[in-house]
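Researcher: Structure prediction, please.
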Amino acid sequence: MNPLIETIKAIEVETPVEKIIRQLKHLIVSGQLKPGDRLPAERVLAEKFGVGRSYVREAILKLEFYGLLKTSPQSGTYVSGLSINVLDNLLTDLINFNKDDFNALIEARYYLELSAVRVAAERRTEEDLHAMERALDEYEYKIAQGLNGVEEDLLFHIKIARATKNPVIESMLLILIPDLVKSINENKVCGEERGLLSIPEHRAILKALEEKDSDAAEKAMANHLNEIFQISRAGYDAKKLLDNNAE
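Model: Predicted structure follows.
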């Protein structure tokens, strides 16, 4: 084979979220958006970017938990006070994060979620439990209708992370979980029946959290994540997954 061919790399297609992050980076680095400036509403941004609000919301959440944006329920979302150089480096890392090794990300998520659910079992409030219950009810309704419950699945895991009351654990999982859950579900890495199988597994996790049983919560979470964890350890083709997800 011609050595030149070996140097050619596949074209990487950015997701809508990555494109939104990149454009916001440009606005901040160029000085058009300064620390303290308020971003337009999600609806307005979605119209300007020409995408659904869920993409804008995911980009803002990632930027917020990286400390690059700050959101106040009363006054909206603002650019943080970090320096341009810090913002530039963090935003570059954030955009490239999703291109990392799939199997390594699965492993990181597995061990982080086992730790997080133990902490959540100790610190969860009744409000946290209600939020998890609502997410599961909506997830099960969608699955019963033959729909994709990926957003509700994602929300349940994020609510567990939030119940730890540890912003570092929460932010790390918020960075890891969304793209992994979406990729796993959309590409049916665990098969067509994964949605149905997840229902009793989710309920076992919630029951352990309700009882504040850290050991049972960890065991239930390990059982829930075991299939994808074993697939990743067996050397699942990460490149194929990412290529499929970009098409």
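Model: Strands lie at 69-72, 76-79.
Researcher: Thanks, that helps.
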